[in-house]
Task: structure prediction
Amino acid sequence: MTLFAYIDPFTGYLVLQVLAMAFFAVVVFFRKCRDFVLGLFGFKPKKTETLDEESETDTEQEKDS
Result:
């Protein structure tokens, strides 16, 4: 018995997106868990600078000059 499998481009791209988002969700989940556990022991998680904070510092620098 011969089986022929075909995945059209839309379905293939959708599967690729689902796999990528699942990977990033797992990464964020474990990072949050790590920060929570470290917080229980008194360690502060590293603060990352967001885009909003960057834009605020840029506007403050423009006001100073």
About this structure: The chain has a mean pLDDT of 81.
